[in-house]
Amino acid sequence: MVSARGLSATYKNSKTKHFYYLCIKTEHMNFEELVLKRQSDRRYLPDAVSKEEIMKCLEAARMSPSACNSQPWKFVVVDDRAKLNEMADAAEGMGMNKFTHGVPVMVAVVLEKMNSSARIGSLLKNKDYSMMDVGMAVEHFCLQAAELGLGTCIIGWFDEKRIAKLLNIPKGRRVPLLIAVGHPNGATRRKSRKPMEEISSWNTY
Ligand SMILES: Cc1cc2nc3c(=O)[nH]c(=O)nc-3n(C[C@H](O)[C@H](O)[C@H](O)COP(=O)(O)O)c2cc1C
């Protein structure tokens, strides 16, 4: 498989790059490769993302696990340029998230009410399962996007009230995350992660 790093060195023009990314998605990528391919992309080509591609990502999110199968999420997909501009304004601040200007699709992830079992479980065990559920669904979305050759960036830093107002999100609903989606304009990076010995142990802490 040609690496994405090799690609950007070889193909400079955006159309050819887009073609390559379309090709890559038909190639077999095993899970390990997919995990390494998914990254936070902060540069995108201007090319539109198709509804079919977004629907595939949403379907992956829909299949994500959740406590008591509560599925406490709703994904609001935004491809309207005026709304995207306002979302970018709402995401930018203190030097963060300038890249969101020009992103072709943004998804607002809305935290819905848990079902009663998950709610009771959350209370009794003092754990907000819904935040975990949403996090997993977002990762499903992003992995599916990566498999399609799309780039994503999970965004947690934004003016939540402004987003909620813009997208007519009912009062009291939280919007924990946004997801930027587009055709990446850059190579796949090496991951920077803590060493395995630091993040895992066997049989005792
Ligand atoms: C909950 C959450 C919130 C994040 N918020 C932002 C954000 O507001 N802006 C941003 O550029 N990246 C954001 N990121 C992306 C992280 O910076 C990124 O996942 C991390 O540095 C690892 O890099 P990688 O995703 O390329 O592997 C967020 C990621 C997560 C999981």
Topology, element by element:
Blueprint: H1 4-10, H2 14-26, H3 31-37, H4 51-62, E1 73-78, H5 81-91, E2 105-111, H6 116-125, H7 129-147, E3 151-155, H8 160-166, E4 174-182, H9 196-199
Antiparallel strand pairs: 1-2, 2-4, 3-4
Bound molecules: flavin mononucleotide.
Flavin mononucleotide binds at residues 39-40, 42, 96-97, 153-157, 177, 191.
Task: Report on this structure.
Helices cover 44% and strands 13% of the residues. The longest helix is centred in the last third of the chain and has 19 residues, at 129-147. The protein folds into two domains: 1-37, no CATH class; 39-187, 3-Layer(aba) Sandwich (NADH Oxidase), CATH 3.40.109. With 205 residues, the chain is of the alpha+beta class. A four-stranded antiparallel beta sheet has the order 1-2-4-3, with helices on both faces. Flavin mononucleotide is lined by residues 39-40, 42, 96-97, 153-157, 177, 191.
Labels describing this entry:
single chain; 205 residues; alpha+beta; NADH Oxidase; 4-stranded antiparallel sheet; 9 helices; 4 strands; 44% helix; binds flavin mononucleotide
Structural class of the helix and strand makeup?
Answer: alpha+beta
The first-level CATH class name of the largest domain: Alpha Beta
The pLDDT mean sits at: 90
Distance between the termini: 39 Å
Biggest sheet details:
4 strands, antiparallel
Instruction: Please provide the count of β strands.
Output: 4
CATH architecture of the largest domain: 3-Layer(aba) Sandwich
Counted by DSSP, the helix tally is 9
Percent of residues in helices comes to 40-55%
In N-to-C order, the SSE pattern is: HHHHEHEHHEHEH
